[in-house]
Amino acid sequence: MNIEDQVRDAIVAELKRQSEAGEQGLRVTSSDAETITVEGRVNLDELTMAVVGSLAGGP
Q1: Residue 52 φ/ψ region, left for φ over 0, alpha for ψ in the -120 to 50 degree band, beta for the rest
Q2: Range of the domain at 16
Q3: How far apart are CA 18 and CA 2, in angstroms?
Q4: Cα dist from 51 to 1, 27, 31, 37, whole Å
Q5: For residue 36, what are the contacts with CB-CB under 8 A and spacing of at least 6?
Q6: CA separation, residue 50 to residues 28, 31, 36 (Å)
Q7: pLDDT at residue 38 tops 90
Q8: What is the DSSP letter of 57?
Q9: pTM
Q10: How many domains would you assign to the chain?
Q11: Are 14 and 47 in contact (CB under 8 A)?
Q12: DSSP-derived secondary structure for 15-49
């Protein structure tokens, strides 16, 4: 897995996590592996932490 795949996976996973947690009315849908639709507010601090964590080898 290359760095771009790691970042993409971390972003999608965190956005879906925030959506499932019901944070700020966030909705995330995907129709294929390359695009997603995001509606609502995103917690950028949590998204940033997820991306940095994935690059550092975290969960």
Answers
A1: alpha
A2: 3-55
A3: 25
A4: 15, 19, 22, 19
A5: 12, 15, 28, 29, 30
A6: 17, 23, 18
A7: yes
A8: T
A9: 0.84
A10: 1
A11: yes
A12: HHHHHHTTGGG-EEEESSSS-EEEES---HHHHHH
